[in-house]
Amino acid sequence: MNRIFASRLLPLMATGLVLVALFAAAGAGYENFLSARVVLNLFKDRAFLGVVAVGMTFVILSGGIDLSVGAVMAFTTVFLAKVIGGLGWSAPVAMLAAVGIGVGFGMFQGWVIHFFRIPAFLVTLAGMFLARGMAFVVSPRSVEIRSAFYDDLGERGLPLGEGLLLTVGPLVYLVVVAAGMVVAHGTRFGRNVYALGGNEASAALMGLPVGATRVGVYALCGGCAALGGVISTLALSSGDPTRGTGLELDAIAAAVIGGTVLTGGRGWVFGTFLGVLILGTIKTILDFDGSLDPAWLRIASGGLLLGFILLQKLIARRSVS
Amino acid sequence: MSELLHAEGIVKRFGSFTALKGVTFRLRAGEIHALMGENGAGKSTLIKVLTGVHEADGGTVTVAGRGIRAASPREAEAAGISTVYQEVNLLPNLSVAENILMGRQPMRGPFIRHGEVKRRARAALARLGLEVDVGALLGTFPVAVQQMTAIARALDQEARVLILDEPTSSLDARESEELFAVMRRLRDEGMGIVFVSHFLDQIYAVSDRITVLRDGALVGTWEAAGLPRLELVSHMIGKEVTAGGGDGGVISVGGAEAFRVEGLERKGTVGPLTFSVMAGEATGLAGLLGSGRTETARMLFGIDAATGGRVTAGAEAVDLGSPRAAMAAGLAFCSEDRKVEGIIPSLSVRENIVLAMQASRGVLRRVPRAEQEALAARFIAALNIRTRGPETPIGTLSGGNQQKCLLARWMAMQPRLLILDEPTRGIDVGAKAEIEALCGELRRAGMSILFISAELEEVVRNCSRVVVLRDRRQAAVLDGPAISLRTIMETVAAS
Question: Is domain B3-237 in CATH 3.90.226.10, yes or no?
Fold first, then answer.
């Protein structure tokens, strides 16, 4: 027992346990809940959030925050709708350009944060208004995307048997999570992100590239936000300047529920993956049970968030004593 | 013996202030070289120049005959200079192995070879005779291990110059001994080690040579074996040890005992201390930098909890559980670092003066505005505070006048014991004299003062009794006629 409590993986295990418990409870309460189709839908429904949350996890690990991700995602969706529908760009080129814009936007935010020593909260808050405003400039209302490429992509995926198909959106999500885990754990950039979040002054004294890492982290997050936008257009075949309102907070919640400490330096991409699934499961339960008020989604998320923050605090106290 | 590092004529300015005035420092291969100096001597600045944290405004640095110009810690490390800082500058949230290899991890393509990282970390630690689980988070280990990890990091990058900046300040005696053993071993392997410490015993235990800086200038470099302690202390504080020295302290007025401190200590920080504070007298706390002066003040005022001993006033025990309790018992503390712990720069002179009084009353019982203004006006006149008016933001005043406002703040409380930690640091000569005169007036009014100062003459001039601290322990209590520059210095330097 003590060894379990002493383990630094404790928050991750707690998150996993909550996910299993939620699923088990829902399975007992609702018929047909424990089915591959429900799980598959959950992945499909939450893929965009999952991708955005991976980027957010890196930013939080570095000791920062990015409030602009929802707005960047919204901009991406209307940008795609506009250039594909209005300007007739080929869809793959438009998607690449959109992700490029996201990366560039993130780089710029990271550069401002690093070189002017302005809190990330403020810079990305400004970025949030900027990107959201740009989204409305591109299109004030929702636009449908008509494209053969989209229609074709919608039918492709990884066949799982019994007529089930892991479509492109969730597939990209899983790939991003896996890549995120490898980058965070196995590359110098990833370890420098942890170092930066652990103690910036120490990281600098150890000769680590603090500036490049910080700019890189926001570029990565901007890219993930744009990629989330691309995935959301795949699922909904439309662009909408109001989409992803409050998404940044869901992404932060997913990361924290997954065991990432908001002050930086500690956490896991895999934890965020579990966090997204927990939030998704709660939503699925509400979808299943038509009688429940959607407000319960928020309340349950809030309760979980509070519980996990308290758990982290308890663990931190333990490791101090 | 070959010369490893040679810094010649190093100049470093911060704005109009010159921190290093052409300092020369030579380090041989295979020696432990102590760098000594009191506050403001320029030790930290010199180290930061050598390690590339600061860029020098003048002078040259050569390592093994090659000129270097380190503009960043990374370049200094590449030139073979590694530093272990006092507050171990590593990453507690990463593993021991990662801390040792961070930034230099062996790679396979874009991926870190984690197994190889651990192997090299183990090898580096083995050279120091340390065997720990290198995969565990650094933060789970005691400071001693973290320090070894920092040294192992230097070893892995094949540093030839190792700078240890107060490495023993948070180690216990046994851990310090282990560190010294490692230092001697590395020295014998040909490394040049720069050792900064405030503990004279430690300096003499491991150092081959000693360089003393004072006020940003080089005083000299000596063989440790040929430099008596008293002479070292005299070089550090810049006072000749003259014969006679019958300058004596302030004659005791024979007041009653106001407070008695008995065996007060904070494990691992300072103490035990035993002395009496008389009413209407100033008691001095003297010692070198790092001897535990400020720590004693913080403990007395309840900022850092004491772990043993007690303080009594007459028959009653005094509760030192918190600054609030200490204030209730009649203590006041004028802190050393007035910028950080004292003044609130954006508030007015009046608000700063009333602050402690308001705090003691609680937020609900506001000190009436008229009373505040009367108070401010009285102290501005009495202390000769030069300000445009009571509503001027205190941050715009000179250091000496800020200090007087702080004094006013605590005088308004009419404490029984006023703790003054370096009340004259960084203020001009005229203001110093005024502050000293003020202390005299307070004493005559029956207040007790605990006077802490790095300037020994000031202590001698103002105090009737001096508690001398050495290596964070009480070395002696000097009384009246026994107080002189010479006796204090001799006590400080005694082994």
Answer: no
